[in-house]
Automatic annotation (TrEMBL):
<protein>
    <recommendedName>
        <fullName>t-SNARE coiled-coil homology domain-containing protein</fullName>
    </recommendedName>
</protein>
<keyword id="KW-0653">Protein transport</keyword>
<keyword id="KW-0813">Transport</keyword>
<dbReference type="Pfam" id="PF05739">
    <property type="entry name" value="SNARE"/>
</dbReference>
<feature type="domain" description="T-SNARE coiled-coil homology">
    <location>
        <begin position="1"/>
        <end position="42"/>
    </location>
</feature>
<keyword id="KW-0472">Membrane</keyword>
<keyword id="KW-0812">Transmembrane</keyword>
<feature type="transmembrane region" description="Helical">
    <location>
        <begin position="53"/>
        <end position="72"/>
    </location>
</feature>
<dbReference type="GO" id="GO:0015031">
    <property type="term" value="P:protein transport"/>
</dbReference>
<keyword id="KW-1133">Transmembrane helix</keyword>
<dbReference type="InterPro" id="IPR000727">
    <property type="entry name" value="T_SNARE_dom"/>
</dbReference>
Amino acid sequence: MRSFSRYPVLVEAEGEILDNIESQVSTAVSNVQSGTVALQKAKNRQKSTRKRMCIAILILLIIVAVIVVGVLKPWKSS
């Protein structure tokens, strides 16, 4: 009979462990969702930054071309 008296204690301990596992899984799901949102934002920022960098390089190349043409003046023969 003594062994049967320990079952409620064991069942309660198992229930606490399961509750703890459930809580940890819920926290993990929340963290994964937050991480997914953060990654999406980072991806969008990276695209935007890449586009701005290409535009800046293009403008810089145009400025350099204008300076080179202005200095060399290939249409004027001396």
